[in-house]
Protein backbone atom coordinates (compact mmCIF):
# COMPACT_ATOMS: atom_id res chain seq x y z
CA UNK A 1 0.00 0.00 0.00
CA UNK A 2 1.40 3.37 -1.00
CA UNK A 3 2.13 6.18 1.46
CA UNK A 4 -0.32 8.31 -0.53
CA UNK A 5 -3.11 5.80 0.16
CA UNK A 6 -2.24 5.69 3.85
CA UNK A 7 -2.24 9.46 4.22
CA UNK A 8 -5.33 9.76 2.05
CA UNK A 9 -7.23 7.59 4.51
CA UNK A 10 -6.44 9.61 7.61
CA UNK A 11 -3.03 8.17 8.39
CA UNK A 12 -2.34 4.98 10.28
CA UNK A 13 -3.20 3.65 13.74
CA UNK A 14 -1.45 0.79 15.50
CA UNK A 15 -3.50 -1.24 17.98
CA UNK A 16 -2.07 -2.08 21.42
CA UNK A 17 0.57 -4.77 21.12
CA UNK A 18 2.09 -3.33 17.96
CA UNK A 19 1.18 -6.19 15.61
CA UNK A 20 -1.95 -4.76 13.99
CA UNK A 21 -2.10 -1.46 12.10
CA UNK A 22 -4.90 -0.01 9.99
CA UNK A 23 -5.67 3.14 8.06
CA UNK A 24 -7.91 5.37 10.15
CA UNK A 25 -10.72 5.58 7.61
CA UNK A 26 -12.28 2.14 7.19
CA UNK A 27 -15.61 0.70 6.14
CA UNK A 28 -18.67 -0.56 8.02
CA UNK A 29 -20.55 -3.40 6.32
CA UNK A 30 -23.96 -3.12 8.02
CA UNK A 31 -25.62 -1.44 5.02
CA UNK A 32 -24.70 -4.35 2.75
CA UNK A 33 -27.68 -6.31 4.10
CA UNK A 34 -31.28 -5.73 3.05
CA UNK A 35 -33.71 -3.16 4.44
CA UNK A 36 -33.65 -3.08 8.24
CA UNK A 37 -30.33 -4.97 8.14
CA UNK A 38 -32.39 -8.05 7.30
CA UNK A 39 -31.99 -10.50 4.43
CA UNK A 40 -29.97 -10.03 1.27
CA UNK A 41 -29.51 -6.66 -0.44
CA UNK A 42 -31.51 -5.85 -3.57
CA UNK A 43 -28.25 -5.61 -5.54
CA UNK A 44 -25.72 -8.24 -4.49
CA UNK A 45 -23.41 -7.31 -7.35
CA UNK A 46 -23.38 -3.72 -6.13
CA UNK A 47 -22.49 -4.87 -2.61
CA UNK A 48 -19.57 -6.92 -3.94
CA UNK A 49 -18.39 -3.92 -5.96
CA UNK A 50 -18.43 -1.61 -2.91
CA UNK A 51 -16.20 -3.96 -0.91
CA UNK A 52 -13.76 -4.46 -3.76
CA UNK A 53 -13.61 -0.72 -4.42
CA UNK A 54 -12.96 -0.03 -0.72
CA UNK A 55 -10.01 -2.43 -0.58
CA UNK A 56 -8.64 -1.15 -3.90
CA UNK A 57 -8.72 2.38 -2.43
CA UNK A 58 -6.59 1.27 0.53
CA UNK A 59 -9.24 0.46 3.15
CA UNK A 60 -7.84 -2.28 5.38
CA UNK A 61 -10.29 -2.13 8.30
CA UNK A 62 -13.76 -3.61 7.74
CA UNK A 63 -16.33 -3.71 10.52
CA UNK A 64 -19.06 -6.37 10.40
CA UNK A 65 -21.17 -8.78 12.44
CA UNK A 66 -22.74 -12.13 11.70
CA UNK A 67 -26.04 -10.84 13.08
CA UNK A 68 -26.23 -8.38 10.17
CA UNK A 69 -28.68 -10.11 7.89
CA UNK A 70 -28.19 -12.42 9.80
CA UNK A 71 -25.12 -13.97 8.13
CA UNK A 72 -25.62 -11.87 4.99
CA UNK A 73 -22.83 -9.30 5.30
CA UNK A 74 -20.21 -11.86 6.30
CA UNK A 75 -21.14 -14.09 3.38
CA UNK A 76 -20.88 -11.10 1.01
CA UNK A 77 -17.49 -10.10 2.48
CA UNK A 78 -16.21 -13.63 1.97
CA UNK A 79 -17.53 -13.79 -1.57
CA UNK A 80 -16.04 -10.41 -2.48
CA UNK A 81 -12.63 -10.61 -0.84
CA UNK A 82 -11.65 -14.18 0.11
CA UNK A 83 -8.81 -15.14 0.06
CA UNK A 84 -8.28 -11.93 1.99
CA UNK A 85 -5.45 -9.57 1.04
CA UNK A 86 -2.53 -9.35 3.42
CA UNK A 87 -3.05 -6.68 6.07
CA UNK A 88 -6.84 -6.60 5.89
CA UNK A 89 -8.30 -6.45 9.41
CA UNK A 90 -11.87 -7.67 9.74
CA UNK A 91 -13.46 -6.67 13.04
CA UNK A 92 -16.71 -8.33 14.08
CA UNK A 93 -19.06 -7.95 17.01
CA UNK A 94 -21.13 -10.39 19.03
CA UNK A 95 -23.74 -10.10 21.77
CA UNK A 96 -27.01 -10.05 19.79
CA UNK A 97 -29.15 -12.36 17.71
CA UNK A 98 -31.82 -11.81 15.07
CA UNK A 99 -34.85 -14.09 15.44
CA UNK A 100 -37.31 -14.66 12.60
CA UNK A 101 -39.28 -11.51 13.41
CA UNK A 102 -36.22 -9.39 12.56
CA UNK A 103 -35.86 -7.92 16.05
CA UNK A 104 -32.56 -7.35 17.86
CA UNK A 105 -32.29 -9.54 20.96
CA UNK A 106 -29.49 -9.89 23.54
CA UNK A 107 -27.37 -13.02 23.16
CA UNK A 108 -24.71 -12.49 25.80
CA UNK A 109 -24.36 -15.80 27.64
CA UNK A 110 -21.06 -17.70 27.25
CA UNK A 111 -22.86 -20.28 25.10
CA UNK A 112 -24.37 -17.55 22.90
CA UNK A 113 -21.01 -15.83 22.47
CA UNK A 114 -19.23 -19.07 21.65
CA UNK A 115 -21.83 -19.89 19.00
CA UNK A 116 -21.53 -16.39 17.55
CA UNK A 117 -17.75 -16.69 17.24
CA UNK A 118 -18.13 -19.98 15.38
CA UNK A 119 -20.79 -18.44 13.11
CA UNK A 120 -18.45 -15.56 12.25
CA UNK A 121 -15.54 -17.92 11.61
CA UNK A 122 -17.60 -20.11 9.30
CA UNK A 123 -19.26 -17.36 7.30
CA UNK A 124 -16.10 -15.28 6.93
CA UNK A 125 -14.00 -18.33 6.08
CA UNK A 126 -11.44 -17.71 8.82
CA UNK A 127 -9.59 -19.90 11.34
CA UNK A 128 -9.36 -17.05 13.87
CA UNK A 129 -11.05 -13.66 14.26
CA UNK A 130 -8.60 -10.74 14.46
CA UNK A 131 -10.76 -8.52 16.72
CA UNK A 132 -14.10 -9.36 18.32
CA UNK A 133 -16.12 -6.63 20.01
CA UNK A 134 -18.50 -7.66 22.77
CA UNK A 135 -21.59 -5.55 22.14
CA UNK A 136 -23.51 -4.72 25.32
CA UNK A 137 -27.22 -4.95 24.55
CA UNK A 138 -29.27 -2.71 26.84
CA UNK A 139 -32.91 -1.70 26.91
CA UNK A 140 -32.42 0.95 24.21
CA UNK A 141 -29.74 1.94 21.70
CA UNK A 142 -27.40 3.42 24.30
CA UNK A 143 -25.24 1.81 27.00
CA UNK A 144 -26.49 0.96 30.47
CA UNK A 145 -24.53 0.11 33.58
CA UNK A 146 -24.31 -3.60 34.38
CA UNK A 147 -21.47 -6.01 34.95
CA UNK A 148 -19.89 -7.37 31.79
CA UNK A 149 -17.48 -9.66 33.62
CA UNK A 150 -19.11 -12.92 32.49
CA UNK A 151 -19.18 -12.19 28.73
CA UNK A 152 -15.67 -10.70 28.73
CA UNK A 153 -14.37 -13.75 30.61
CA UNK A 154 -16.03 -15.94 27.96
CA UNK A 155 -14.24 -14.03 25.22
CA UNK A 156 -10.95 -14.35 27.11
CA UNK A 157 -11.42 -18.14 27.12
CA UNK A 158 -12.06 -18.13 23.37
CA UNK A 159 -8.91 -16.03 23.00
CA UNK A 160 -6.90 -18.63 24.92
CA UNK A 161 -8.21 -21.28 22.51
CA UNK A 162 -6.92 -19.25 19.57
CA UNK A 163 -10.33 -18.45 18.08
CA UNK A 164 -10.01 -14.73 18.89
CA UNK A 165 -6.79 -12.73 18.69
CA UNK A 166 -7.95 -9.44 20.23
CA UNK A 167 -10.92 -8.27 22.31
CA UNK A 168 -12.88 -5.05 21.96
CA UNK A 169 -16.05 -3.59 23.47
CA UNK A 170 -19.11 -1.86 22.01
CA UNK A 171 -21.92 0.23 23.49
CA UNK A 172 -20.25 0.39 26.89
CA UNK A 173 -19.60 2.87 29.69
CA UNK A 174 -16.24 3.96 31.08
CA UNK A 175 -16.91 1.82 34.16
CA UNK A 176 -17.50 -1.24 31.98
CA UNK A 177 -14.29 -0.58 30.06
CA UNK A 178 -12.37 -0.54 33.34
CA UNK A 179 -14.11 -3.74 34.48
CA UNK A 180 -13.22 -5.50 31.22
CA UNK A 181 -9.60 -4.38 31.48
CA UNK A 182 -9.35 -6.18 34.79
CA UNK A 183 -10.12 -9.42 32.92
CA UNK A 184 -8.53 -9.08 29.48
CA UNK A 185 -6.58 -6.67 27.30
CA UNK A 186 -8.96 -4.38 25.42
CA UNK A 187 -7.75 -2.99 22.07
CA UNK A 188 -10.76 -0.92 20.96
CA UNK A 189 -14.05 0.60 22.09
CA UNK A 190 -16.93 1.20 19.66
CA UNK A 191 -19.61 3.63 20.90
CA UNK A 192 -22.12 6.20 19.68
CA UNK A 193 -20.27 9.49 19.21
CA UNK A 194 -20.52 12.40 16.80
CA UNK A 195 -20.54 16.21 16.61
CA UNK A 196 -23.74 16.47 18.65
CA UNK A 197 -23.48 13.38 20.86
CA UNK A 198 -20.29 13.82 22.87
CA UNK A 199 -20.97 11.97 26.11
CA UNK A 200 -17.76 9.99 25.57
CA UNK A 201 -15.37 12.95 25.45
CA UNK A 202 -13.65 11.99 28.72
CA UNK A 203 -13.53 8.31 27.74
CA UNK A 204 -11.94 9.16 24.40
CA UNK A 205 -9.26 11.22 26.11
CA UNK A 206 -8.55 8.38 28.53
CA UNK A 207 -8.30 5.82 25.73
CA UNK A 208 -6.06 8.16 23.73
CA UNK A 209 -3.62 8.13 26.63
CA UNK A 210 -3.70 4.35 26.70
CA UNK A 211 -3.27 3.97 22.94
CA UNK A 212 -6.62 2.15 22.63
CA UNK A 213 -8.70 2.69 19.50
CA UNK A 214 -12.07 4.45 19.70
CA UNK A 215 -14.47 3.68 16.87
CA UNK A 216 -17.55 5.95 16.73
CA UNK A 217 -20.74 4.71 15.17
CA UNK A 218 -23.62 6.97 14.01
CA UNK A 219 -21.23 9.72 12.81
CA UNK A 220 -24.20 11.80 11.60
CA UNK A 221 -26.75 10.88 14.26
CA UNK A 222 -27.91 7.42 13.20
CA UNK A 223 -31.59 6.81 13.88
CA UNK A 224 -32.16 10.53 14.50
CA UNK A 225 -30.09 12.29 11.81
CA UNK A 226 -28.26 15.36 13.01
CA UNK A 227 -29.94 18.57 11.89
CA UNK A 228 -27.50 21.45 12.26
CA UNK A 229 -27.51 24.74 10.38
CA UNK A 230 -23.88 25.19 11.49
CA UNK A 231 -22.84 21.88 9.95
CA UNK A 232 -24.74 22.64 6.75
CA UNK A 233 -23.18 26.09 6.53
CA UNK A 234 -19.65 24.78 7.07
CA UNK A 235 -20.18 22.05 4.48
CA UNK A 236 -21.42 24.58 1.93
CA UNK A 237 -18.43 26.87 2.50
CA UNK A 238 -15.98 23.96 2.19
CA UNK A 239 -17.80 22.61 -0.88
CA UNK A 240 -18.28 19.31 0.92
CA UNK A 241 -21.21 17.27 2.21
CA UNK A 242 -22.29 17.43 5.87
CA UNK A 243 -21.24 13.80 6.32
CA UNK A 244 -17.76 14.53 4.94
CA UNK A 245 -17.38 17.41 7.39
CA UNK A 246 -18.62 15.26 10.29
CA UNK A 247 -16.16 12.50 9.40
CA UNK A 248 -13.27 14.95 9.00
CA UNK A 249 -14.07 16.46 12.41
CA UNK A 250 -13.90 13.00 14.00
CA UNK A 251 -10.46 12.42 12.47
CA UNK A 252 -9.33 15.73 13.99
CA UNK A 253 -10.89 14.97 17.38
CA UNK A 254 -8.27 12.42 18.52
CA UNK A 255 -5.50 10.36 16.88
CA UNK A 256 -6.95 7.06 18.14
CA UNK A 257 -10.34 7.54 16.45
CA UNK A 258 -11.00 5.07 13.62
CA UNK A 259 -13.92 5.61 11.27
CA UNK A 260 -16.17 2.95 9.74
CA UNK A 261 -18.79 4.80 7.66
CA UNK A 262 -21.04 2.41 5.78
CA UNK A 263 -22.73 2.58 2.40
CA UNK A 264 -24.04 0.29 -0.32
CA UNK A 265 -23.04 2.73 -3.08
CA UNK A 266 -19.64 3.00 -4.76
CA UNK A 267 -20.19 6.72 -5.39
CA UNK A 268 -21.06 7.33 -1.73
CA UNK A 269 -18.05 5.24 -0.67
CA UNK A 270 -15.78 7.52 -2.67
CA UNK A 271 -17.36 10.59 -1.02
CA UNK A 272 -16.78 9.09 2.42
CA UNK A 273 -13.14 8.27 1.71
CA UNK A 274 -12.56 11.81 0.40
CA UNK A 275 -13.43 13.14 3.87
CA UNK A 276 -9.95 12.16 5.05
CA UNK A 277 -8.48 14.77 2.71
CA UNK A 278 -10.81 17.58 3.76
CA UNK A 279 -8.91 20.34 5.60
CA UNK A 280 -10.68 21.90 8.60
CA UNK A 281 -9.14 25.25 9.59
CA UNK A 282 -9.03 26.07 13.30
CA UNK A 283 -11.89 28.54 13.00
CA UNK A 284 -14.08 25.88 11.40
CA UNK A 285 -13.18 23.40 14.12
CA UNK A 286 -14.26 25.97 16.72
CA UNK A 287 -17.60 26.38 14.94
CA UNK A 288 -18.14 22.64 14.78
CA UNK A 289 -17.22 22.19 18.44
CA UNK A 290 -20.16 24.45 19.30
CA UNK A 291 -22.70 22.07 17.77
CA UNK A 292 -22.67 19.80 20.81
CA UNK A 293 -23.49 22.63 23.22
CA UNK A 294 -26.35 23.78 20.97
CA UNK A 295 -27.70 20.22 20.71
CA UNK A 296 -27.52 19.86 24.49
CA UNK A 297 -29.44 23.10 25.00
CA UNK A 298 -32.15 21.90 22.62
CA UNK A 299 -32.53 18.67 24.58
CA UNK A 300 -33.26 20.53 27.83
Radius of gyration computed on alpha carbons: 18 Å
The tally of domains stands at 1
H/E element order: HEEEHEHEEEHEHEHEHEHHHH
Largest sheet: 7 strands, parallel
Assembly state here? single chain
Structural class: alpha/beta
Strand composition percent: 15-25%
Number of strands: 11
**Roughly what is the average pLDDT, rounded to an integer?**
94
> In DSSP terms, counting alpha (H) and pi (I) runs of 4 or more, how many helices?
11
Which fold name corresponds to the CATH topology?
Answer: TIM Barrel
Distance between the termini: 48 Å
Polypeptide structure, described:
The protein is an alpha/beta fold. It has a single domain (3-299), classed as TIM Barrel (Alpha-Beta Barrel), CATH 3.20.20. Helices cover 41% and strands 16% of the residues. The protein has eleven helices and eleven strands. It has helices at residues 3-8, 44-56, 72-81, 110-124, 149-160, 174-181, 201-210, 229-237, 242-253, 266-274, 282-299; strands at 12-14, 21-23, 27-28, 61-64, 89-94, 96-97, 105-106, 129-135, 164-170, 186-192, 213-217. The strands form three sheets. A seven-stranded parallel β-sheet has the order 3-4-5-8-9-10-11, with helices on one face. Strands 1-2 form a two-stranded antiparallel sheet. A two-stranded antiparallel ribbon has the order 6-7. Strand 8, helix 5 and strand 9 form a beta-alpha-beta unit. Helix 2 crosses helix 3, helix 4 crosses helix 5 and helix 8 crosses helix 9 (242-253). The radius of gyration is 18 Å and the shape is globular. The N and C termini lie far apart (48 Å). The relative contact order is 0.13.
Amino acid sequence: MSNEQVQGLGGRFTFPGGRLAVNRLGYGAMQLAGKGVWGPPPDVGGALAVLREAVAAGVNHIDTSDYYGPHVTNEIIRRALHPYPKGLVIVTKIGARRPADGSWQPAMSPADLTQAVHDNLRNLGLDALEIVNFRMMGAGHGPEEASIAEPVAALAELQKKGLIRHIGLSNVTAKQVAEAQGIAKVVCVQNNYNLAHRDDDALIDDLTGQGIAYVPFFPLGGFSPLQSSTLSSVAERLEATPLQVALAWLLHRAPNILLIPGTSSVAHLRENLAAARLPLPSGVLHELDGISAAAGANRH
